[in-house]
Amino acid sequence: MSGWSAEDVPAQGGRVAVVTGANSGIGYVTARELARRGARVLLACRSEARGVGARDRLVGEVPGAEVEFARLDLGDLASVREFATTYPYDRLDLLVNNAGVMALPYGTTADGFETQFGVNHLGHFALTGLLMPTILATPAARVVAVSSTAHALANIDIDDLNSERRYRRWVAYARSKTANLLFVHELSRRLAAHGTDVIGVAAHPGYAATNLQTAGPKMAGRGAVERFMRVGNRFFAQSAEAGALSTLYAATAPEVPPDSFTGPSLAGWRGSPAPSWRAPWTRDDRASRRLWTVSEKLTGVAYDVLKV
Questions:
Q1: 67 contacts 115 by C-beta, under 8 angstroms
Q2: What does the pLDDT look like over 114-170, one tens digit per residue?
Q3: Which domains does the chain have, with CATH numbers?
Q4: Helix axes 124-136, 285-299, angle to 10 degrees
Q5: What's the mean pLDDT in 246-253?
Q6: Does the keyword DNA repair apply (predicted)?
Q7: How far is 223 from 251, CA to CA, in rounded Å?
Q8: Residue of 28, 87, 173, 207 marked active site
Q9: What is the pTM of this model?
Q10: CB environment 45-59: b (16+ within 10 A), e (fewer)
């Protein structure tokens, strides 16, 4: 894994990938490099203007790339269902659940869920479940959840998943990223029980310069915090190009094991992809099962094809 770069992504000809939040940052780089290696890539983005713009930019950078845009708002389960219903292919080799929000002021999704939990976890949970029949029909397919080292700040509170008792933006973010890892843990258990060669894995970008860091402070009108984040992005963060390597590795490297967590090698901050530390609570079987059951109820999406 030492020195692994985008040039090491294996050939992806004949494969189909969906990347959520692919209009910018790590998602865009992930989509571009998969397309560069021959994958047909569907950019799943909330904004049509930004999604179409990203598609056009990507084709300009990778002439001949097979790239399409489809609208997906992870904060609206009706949009998630429409995306899954109109999914145009009979296979899905890579589902990269990359889109996310971070440390936003308190808000709710279209379905009434706390925004960070609703977008970062429930939206992707529903999307994966609705696409699961197609994923299972694709040999050696992968589901990749993009989490964060910030998951270590907080475990989920199964009795207050929507932060109704008290909202702290960074705790809510951490809980949503813990939920991503618990999802992969339970998904891996269920896939193994069904004897399929499909695997679920997770990755994180370390400290990468994207618009994720500034969106929350900007929404809250916290100018000083926004400026601080911009300075951090400029002088301390690695690029989105480097941050995407962990996702690309988790999505394509042949030796990646199920339920693994890949991140930058240097203190989880920057560097080549490597196995990453994760909090013990993200491998808690009971917690992952409980979160799965609650998520099915909240979203109305039952993973009937993976019942155990």
A1: no
A2: 999 999 999 999 999 999 999 999 999 999 999 999 999 999 999 999 999 999 999
A3: 6-210+240-300 (3.40.50.720)
A4: 100
A5: 98
A6: no
A7: 36
A8: 173
A9: 0.91
A10: bbeeebbbebbeebe
